[in-house]
Amino acid sequence: MQRQVVHQMLETQQLGVSFGGVHALSGVSLAIEPGRIYGLIGPNGAGKSTAINAITGTIVPTAGRILWHGKDVSRWPQYRRARSGLARTFQNLALFHKLSVWENVACGALHAHDDPNLRGAVDAALDAFGLAQLADEPVNVLSLGTRKRVEMARATVANAKLLLLDEPAAGLTGGEITEFSERMREFRDRGGSVLLVEHDMSLVMTLCEHIFVLDFGKLIAGGTPDEVRANPAVQAAYFGAGDEQLH
Ligand SMILES: Nc1ncnc2c1ncn2[C@@H]1O[C@H](COP(=O)(O)OP(=O)(O)O)[C@@H](O)[C@H]1O
Ligand SMILES: [Mg+2]
Question: How remote is the CA of residue 42 from the centroid of ligand 2, in Å?
Answer without folding.
Answer: 10
